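Final report, Chapter 2: Outcomes

The project's central promise was a pipeline that accepts a single protein chain and returns its three-dimensional structure in a standardized token representation, suitable for archiving and comparison. That pipeline is now operational. To close this chapter, we reproduce one record exactly as it appears in the project archive, with the input sequence first and the structure output second.
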Amino acid sequence: MIEAGEGNSAAVTSKNELLIWGIGLHGRLGTGRTNNVYTPSYLDDLDSIKVEDISLGSNHTLCILRNGKVMCWGSSKEGKIGLESALDRNFLIPRDLIALEKEKIFQISAGPFHSIALTESGYVYSFGNAKDGKLGFEDAK
């Protein structure tokens, strides 16, 4: 699988290894730094972890592991990576998405200001900016 984001790209190899490259702004590459990466590179933090799927938002990244768990990194602005206790921070390395730890995730999608996850049992989780109904419920008042 291959994914093109806003200034960054990623690929999951046939051996379920994650390659990532592009602009490192806000830590969206997960390398531990905000430097740009000019050629496809493996993430040291995911070296022995099998990746099934990847989604690139404008400044954040989500990936599904073989066990159905989700990892996230990059900008947490407006809660778009699902780390509620860390609103408006940059995570430079992959972190477990603890809010979904009891679910087996089937598919993910990272938008510019929000993200959504579909479980194997058909439930949808959404997080981030709720404006204009993009999370699937009315805006918070």
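Archive annotation: The mean pLDDT is 91.
This record, like all others produced under the grant, will remain available to the consortium after the project formally closes.
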